[in-house]
Structure formats: structure tokens, C-alpha cells
Known about the structure:
The protein is an alpha+beta fold and 301 residues long.
Amino acid sequence: xxxxxxxxxxxxxxxxxxxxxxxxxxxxxxxxxxxxxxxxxxxxxxxxxxxxxxxxxxxxxxxxxxxxxxxxxxxxxxxxxxxxxxxxxxxxxxxxxxxxxxxxxxxxxxxxxxxxxxxxxxxxxxxxxxxxxxxxxxxxxxxxxxxxxxxxxxxxxxxxxxxxxxxxxxxxxxxxxxxxxxxxxxxxxxxxxxxxxxxxxxxxxxxxxxxxxxxxxxxxxxxxxxxxxxxxxxxxxxxxxxxxxxxxxxxxxxxxxxxxxxxxxxxxxxxxxxxxxxxxxxxxxxxxxxxxxxxxxxxxx
Length: 301
């Protein structure tokens, strides 16, 4: 089953892919609560079974511009860094022996075909192709062998990063949380549709393949990622786990390759689809803004 959040005159609403397009779940069921993916994930199997029955309906075609983030406003985005050996080594780091985790905020999420805004405060805007895990039932202390019971499905995401902000300090939070910097979609593909243990994953910038790998190369695989994060926090319906990016990112190239306004960045995961975003310039940041990596620290707080 493939679920998408799509703009309608009533706002963003949950749809399921039918035989010939997308079906508005709330409209088809007559239950307005089904307009929300979060309601479905919180309700669990009864809601999923009701939606699955709609997958044989006809549906309608939807323009790319009408797709919202496949998971709107996730409660949390829990991220793995350095989760492919090649990516760790290309950045001059040792291959980690412990998961390298960080967190993104919900306002960093963007639609799968929306304009990707290059922050005015960075000149080093980089791409990261990733597989995303969407939590369904969730829970605490979930062992790897029970992980699939906690997962609703999977998405494609681009963990776009302001590298100068990320690498200016030991913590990565600032460089990973500019508004609208993580396109996510195009659909949530449920676990019964696809085995994600060995899928092709890639990124393409202006038609040139930049990253090409397989999810089987992840150091922490999908079940282990769920086990790790649930060991210290209770996973909740709608949480997203970003599983890390393979080698080939822009900062590690000679010369470095950054995303600029006018570029088109595509991220694909086999069986899940492709997200495609045009990079545009941010226009509302003041030119004299002081908080930039390398600028003197502000004083007098």
C-alpha cells in the first residue's frame, strides 16, 4: 500500500494510491479523521485495513506540485550519521563502531517536489540521499527481530545539509535544521509492499549521478536502527528515522560540489520512488546577519 499526503481545497489530506490514481481516504470512508496520516498511524491495524480496501478504487491523477511531505510534521526525525563506511571514510573519519545519532525538527521537512530553499547563510549546501523509516506502532525496547511490527513503512528523503554550519562545531544540529531543508516522500510505502534490506539508492544533480549504492551497505540496518533508537526513547507513531547517506556527497569531492539556485537534485530509492527538488535562493535573510561560521562570536548577551 502506498500513502501520500496531497493538497486539496480542504488542505493537506491523506490519499492512497488506487488503480488509476490517488483516492482521498477521508472522502472515500466518510470519516474526516482519515484525512490525517497521524490518526491512521495512531489507530494502527484497523485503520490500515480500512485504507487497504480502497487500493482497488480508481482514484485521480495528481500534479507533482500538490504533493505535501509524505509525513507532515513528524513528532521527531531521528537521524543516523556516518552509516555507510564509504561516507565515513570520504569525510576523513574512522568507520564508527557505535551509531552516530542526531535530531532534526519538523519544520525542516519539505514536500517531495517542492522548491528546496538554499539558506542565505550558507555557501556549502550539500545533498544526502537516504532511506527513511516511518514509525507506526512504535514502542520502547523493540528488539531487531520485532522491528517490522513497529514500522508503518518507508520513504525517500534528502538530508540536505549546510556543511559550513554542520562542521563549525562538534555538534551537527545547526547545519541539519534550516527550515524546509529535508524533502520527504513521495509516498509512505508500507512494509508488506517491499523488503528494503538491499535496494539501490542514488542522488542525481542536474542529471549527473552523484551517489550510487545499496541499502545493504548500511552499518546499522533498518531493524537495528529501530532497536537502537527505541533503547533510549519511546518511538511514537509518525516518528521518522533517517538511516544515513552513502558516499559521493558534495563536500568530499575534488573540487567540492555544492547545490546552487537553479540546480535540480533528485534522490531515488528502488521501489520507493524519486523525489525531485529545484534549488532556489532564500530572499528574506538580512545581508548583515552576523551568525555565520567563522564570524566573531557575539558578546554582551
